[in-house]
């Protein structure tokens, strides 16, 4: 099956089979097209390709068959018309801003987004006359109140990091559209296996493929998914000019990552849920943040919006920073790193790493306590993960 319509197949099948246009060699696995340029049959064909009158490869900054396969597969999985791949998640986020914003525009962004996303809007788009207001992710009234006549889009991540708060994507899409702006959702924590923001009304989805899509911590990459109109008119011309292209080798790694994404996400989520319930019973744990727990403020919303509760768990210890550091240092197996979405379980202290550059009062306002520890639950045996944590609990 070659030129095949995978639209009617389920996500698990699309993840394994979509996007591969088999060459005359009959290869079963997608090849890596390690070529920067392509040869045309004639001068006329070259001209038709360059002017966009004929589809086909031109130059690997913006057309490469391995990268195209990744794009087609991820677009189907997110149920978007089109996907474009980038060299990193941040390059994908920068592309959305560069393509959609101009001087004088305004953005409303969740306060709880990836640190470099905050810097992108504040320091870089800010430098060119774009203003950004940051709001509380779960406060719908604050989102609406922050919108101005010149607001171009709302930007959020759900669940948030590290407090695993959930945003109501459908309601925020309605609010955005009522005011004539777009909604952009960073879907890194859920992947399309758990949540499809475009189906809930979002206009663009951004990804860091570096996390769950790779799943084994090997490559850095990113993607933007959305309607044919937004991608073709705005994002694609920027990719062609901006040049933050995904390499064919990385696309090939991410393609095989997608093939196992559904089974990995389910296993990640099952272990995270079990770990969250177990942590809640530990005497030295004061509070567990995990949307699967009935104690989570947006448990019902998470149940409605996601197919599973995710694989990142954070918790507060009864002590302060010393207690948190002691717990982290007492683990033998877990990796002490801020990365996430890996088969290897990682543990981190947000207050002194990912959020360490924030002023103490800003951090306190964001609810990131000194006693908070974040775990990205991997695929090792869950009993081994618990036992490793018991060393310090
Ligand atoms: C890692 C991450 C990014 C940035 O992606 P890179 O691939 O590291 O550039 C953006 N958003 C979220 C939620 C992330 O976890």
Any key phrases for this structure?
Aspartate Aminotransferase, domain 1; Aspartate Aminotransferase, domain 2; five-stranded mixed beta sheet; 393 residues; alpha/beta; 15 helices; binds pyridoxal-5'-phosphate; 2 domains
CATH topology name of the largest domain: Aspartate Aminotransferase, domain 2
CATH superfamily of the largest domain: Type I PLP-dependent aspartate aminotransferase-like (Major domain)
The stretches of 5 or more residues where confidence is low (pLDDT under 50) are none
Counted by DSSP, the helix tally is 15
Based on helices, strands and strand pairing, what is the structural class? alpha/beta
Q: Provide the β-strand percentage band.
A: 5-15%
Strand order across the biggest sheet? 1-7-6-5-4-2-3
Short description:
The protein has helices at 11-17, 43-50, 65-78, 89-100, 115-127, 140-146, 169-178, 191-194, 228-242, 248-259, 261-280, 299-305, 321-330, 360-365, 382-390, and strands at residues 82-86, 106-110, 131-135, 151-157, 182-186, 204-208, 222-226, 285-289, 312-317, 335-336, 346-348, 372-376.
Question: How would you explain this protein's 3D organization?
Answer:
- This protein has 15 helices and twelve strands.
- It has 393 residues and is α/β, with parallel strands linked by helices.
- The chain folds into two domains: 18-259, 3-Layer(aba) Sandwich (Aspartate Aminotransferase, domain 2), CATH 3.40.640.10; 262-390, Aspartate Aminotransferase, domain 1 (Alpha-Beta Complex), CATH 3.90.1150.
- The strands form two sheets. A seven-stranded mixed sheet has the order 1-7-6-5-4-2-3, with helices on both faces.
